[in-house]
Amino acid sequence: MKYPIGIQSFEKIRTEGFVYVDKTAFVYKLASEGCYYFLSRPRRFGKSLLISTMEAYFRGKTELFEGLAISKLEKEWNTYPILHLDLNSREYKDESSLETELFLHVIDKAFEQTGRQVVILVDEYDKPLLQTIGNNVLQDIYRSKLKAFYSVLKTQDAKIRFAFLTGVTKFGKVSVFSDLNNLTDISFDRRYSAICGVTEAELHEYFDASVAELADVNGMTKDECYGQLKLDYDGYHFDWNTPGIYNPFSLLNTLSSCQFRDYWFETGTPTFLVHQLQKANYRLDEMTEEKLTADTLNSIDIMDENPLPLLYQSGYLTIKDYDTEFKFYTLGFPNREVREGFVKYLQ
Predict the structure, then answer these.
(1) d(CA 174, CA 143)
(2) Secondary structure of residue 301 in the 3-state scheme
(3) How far is it, in rounded angstroms, from Cα 77 to Cα 132?
């Protein structure tokens, strides 16, 4: 089996025989039921692959979707001009860095030239802001430029078929997206909790033979192997009382190498997270005891006072419980990999 580790191109996965966990039903649901969306998920969780899947869909590349769920749902397969902005592709060290990535009037020109509405896909919208945490001058400049850019999306509404924005954090949703008030945030929507990552059912459906091989190499029964995978890499919840989600990066690396290791945590802790933890001086036991409201959990604008929303959105904490009476969320480490990695990291 070929594992798409680090591959973010849907077309490459489909044409070169890599295993693909079918998420296309989610793509069809989003495209058929709405227009403007935002999704927050941790790093290496499949956001870029999801964006690539959407791009192939809106380009009408039907041959790439043969045998997938969307092939039974979509009947028209219309094509649209695509504006795919990948803000993860450069370093943001000065004011001009962001300007080179944003294109003014492109929507209008694309609409005029093709006569069709435009599809806008923005990957890692928050990268310029995360890279400049601690630099208040650049933070203000970038926020202003991003706010102006996203406000254009609303003024061009009649010319836009679909817009999908992703990021690790819900960074400044109020200040950055304030003019785009028709943006639907599906980060907390239980209908889309499995849009990225791998569910327990998907693990059994797509990787059962791989788990059997992993068990054999490590001298385990298959049931024991499933249990170890669950303990190490499962446990992400993007709403309360939803099925757990496996970290796809660690899962695929484990199945590929037949070795249990902390693959996701070993790729490094982002510098913006290090910066905030150093400022907050939070005790480890406090991270899994504090109660948070939905408003607090949904924004990192208050991160100077409380780093927990940032830890949650970055994938180091996840939702463990919810008090329906008082409307408080309880957070905790999603699995063994993150818990033990975090303890070692803070030592």
Answers:
(1) 11
(2) coil
(3) 41
CB 42 within 8 A of CB 315: yes
- Maximal CA-CA distance, the chain: 63
| Overall size of the chain counted in residues | 347
Dump pLDDT digits (tens) for 242-271.
999 999 999 999 999 999 999 998 887 766
What amino acid is encoded at 79 in this protein? T
Q: Are 136 and 130 in contact (CB under 8 A)?
A: no
Q: pTM for the full model? A: 0.89
| Residues 307/282, Cβ–Cβ less than 8 Å | yes
User: How far, in Å, CA of 301 to CA of 294, rounded?
Assistant: 14
The β-bridge relationship of strands 36-40 and 184-185 is parallel
Question: Among 288, 281, 280, which Cα is nearest to 304's?
Answer: 280
Residues 91-134: pLDDT tens digits? Answer: 667 666 665 556 546 787 888 889 999 999 999 888 888 788 77
Integer Cα distance of 291 and 250 in angstroms: 29
Residue 288 to residue 230: CA distance in whole angstroms: 20
